[in-house]
Amino acid sequence: MNVGAALVSGADAQLNYKWTLPGQHLGALGFALNGSYLQHDEATPLPGQHTYDCAGLFGFTCQTVNPRWRHIFRASWLSPWNVDLAATWRYLGQSG
């Protein structure tokens, strides 16, 4: 019997951009951002018990890291010689 309740809400964003470099054989630059904003992460373990909102929190009650904002950003050089070079930045916002 499932007697608990959960509510998770937020927004996801995905942006991609490609820019062809000027010149004959320079290739292109590519940029990609995948992000997520966590507005609510509420849980009620049993009916009548306290509801916990773990968005942006970490600890004994919340158990997992739930940053409000997280993203992965990637910048790439797409060479014309079938060799690509990329750098990736992964960000997890503060959990308090």
Description:
The protein is mostly beta strands and 96 residues long. Strands 1, 2, 3, 4 and 5 form a five-stranded antiparallel β-sheet that branches.
Task: Give a quick set of tags describing it.
five-stranded antiparallel β-sheet; rod-shaped; 56% strand; single chain
So what's the overall shape? rod-shaped
- Name the helix and strand elements from N-terminus to C-terminus, one letter apiece: EEEEE
Report the strand count: 5
Number of folding domains?
Answer: 1
Which runs of at least 5 residues are low in confidence (pLDDT < 50)?
A: none
Largest β-sheet summary = 5 strands, antiparallel
How is the topology of this model organized?
Blueprint: E1 5-20, E2 28-44, E3 52-53, E4 69-78, E5 84-92
Antiparallel strand pairs: 1-2, 2-3, 2-4, 4-5
In short:
The chain has 96 residues and is mostly beta strands. The protein contains no helices and five strands. It has one domain (5-92).
